[in-house]
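Retry 2 of 3 after timeout on previous attempt. Resubmitting structure tokens to design endpoint.
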């Protein structure tokens, strides 16, 4: 037993030290003016030959470089380049696992079925090697989301250049995440059952358990609370409107049930995550002002009835119906694939969405859905100076070459273990 403890301690010492990322940037002390670039504000507007100025971590001016206004502090000539607000990854599990093959390093899925009190933030590893690899593609913020169970837990939103989770947090405990049951199921072929899709006879029972849980939580919150019940206490924000309920659900019936039952329970703010089939219940979503966070488009449609290009065009379809749409990350290799967030938005742009609408999926739209649009998500005076300069179109992997990036006005390092390896091996055969 002692030998096992020693080996485990040695492993985590080596892993912890080898995974240390770049030292977080110091607080901004000098004003910065960036002029000449094409500014994509994130709200649909574009300024050619722009002037962006910021000081003390906040944007102080957004306009044309042709205006006669005194430049502040250090001047960066970005002529021919592009400026974007920092990209925001919704529904991501960054920092909650480092090596999937090592169970002890995976903190995204907690034991239990109903875990609203489990907070992903305190398990967040700000020094993850994976996190530092996001920044060279412009992904500067993320919603750190738990997985598993019926109620997975509570997410928080971080900026991706920090010493620890306390420094990283920009919105704490923003939402509770729930996985809605599926009304259809497949037989277990390995047990000789028919693998065809068929109605799940336990669907109504599963829904009733969810309703009972939230009704019990409401009764607890309205009572004397003589006995502390942490899971029930954690749901308070859902009923007073300070937190959102992110329901991970797909299917026309399932989405309808999820929204209707949530409203009947008195849950004020609901967000649909995944949302395959949301186009069929768009009137319900618009009526209740329910936004949708889509999955990445590079996947096959789930239903045989879907069009072959459904996953590429769904953002356009929902946007045209008046639904607020954002883009999230979940699925196979999701933590590593989060760096490709801008390119997934670019795919939606190539299949119907205008370029600035596609940009909004990972900037202002995601900020609105996550409730952080008052200080990030677009280049506007008074908001955080969380932005970057790209050599070209940041939604195109061929031209997404970032030369400078800032989080809250701090110029952050774009070096990662990958850029170090590239520099090392690019010189190998000279």
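Retry 2 succeeded. Sequence:
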């Amino acid at each position: 037993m002692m030998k096992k403890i020693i080996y485990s301690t040695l492993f985590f010492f080596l892993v912890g030290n080898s995974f240390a990322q770049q030292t977080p940037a110091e607080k901004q002390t000098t004003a910065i003016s960036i002029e000449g670039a094409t500014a994509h504000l994130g709200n649909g507007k574009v300024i050619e030959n722009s002037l962006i100025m910021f000081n003390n971590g906040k944007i102080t001016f957004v306009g044309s470089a042709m205006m006669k206004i005194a430049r502040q502090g250090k001047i960066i000539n970005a002529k021919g380049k592009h400026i974007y607000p920092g990209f925001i990854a919704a529904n991501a599990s960054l920092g909650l696992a480092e090596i999937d093959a090592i169970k002890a390093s995976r903190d995204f899925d907690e034991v239990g079925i109903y875990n609203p009190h489990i907070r992903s933030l305190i398990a967040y590893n700000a020094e993850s090697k994976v996190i530092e690899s996001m920044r060279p593609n412009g992904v500067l913020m993320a919603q750190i989301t738990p997985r598993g169970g019926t109620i997975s837990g509570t997410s928080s939103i971080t900026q991706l250049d920090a010493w620890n989770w306390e420094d990283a947090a920009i919105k704490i405990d923003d939402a509770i995440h729930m996985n809605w049951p599926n009304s259809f199921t497949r037989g277990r072929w390995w047990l000789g059952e028919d693998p065809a899709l068929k109605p799940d006879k336990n669907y109504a029972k599963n829904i009733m358990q969810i309703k009972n849980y939230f009704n019990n939580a409401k009764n607890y919150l309205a009572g004397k609370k003589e006995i502390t019940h942490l899971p029930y206490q954690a749901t308070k924000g859902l009923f007073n409107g300070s937190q959102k309920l992110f329901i991970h659900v797909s299917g026309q019936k399932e989405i309808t049930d999820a929204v209707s039952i949530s409203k009947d329970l008195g849950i004020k703010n609901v967000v649909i995550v995944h949302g395959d089939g949301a186009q069929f219940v768009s009137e319900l979503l618009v009526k209740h002002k329910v936004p949708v966070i889509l999955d990445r488009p590079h996947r096959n449609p789930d239903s045989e009835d879907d069009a072959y290009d459904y996953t590429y065009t769904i953002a356009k379809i929902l946007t045209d119906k008046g639904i607020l749409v954002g883009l999230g990350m979940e699925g196979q290799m999701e933590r590593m694939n989060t760096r490709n967030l801008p390119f997934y938005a670019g795919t939606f742009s190539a299949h119907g969405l205008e370029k600035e609408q596609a940009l909004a999926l990972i900037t202002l739209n995601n900020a609105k859905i996550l409730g952080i649009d008052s200080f990030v998500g677009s280049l506007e005076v008074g908001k955080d100076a969380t932005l970057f300069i790209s050599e070209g179109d940041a939604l195109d992997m061929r031209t997404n070459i970032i030369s400078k990036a800032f989080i809250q006005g701090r110029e952050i390092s774009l070096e990662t273990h990958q850029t170090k390896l590239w520099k090392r091996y690019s010189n190998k055969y000279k």
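Attempt log closed. Residues 25-86+377-430 form a domain with the Urease, subunit C; domain 1 fold (CATH 2.30.40.10).
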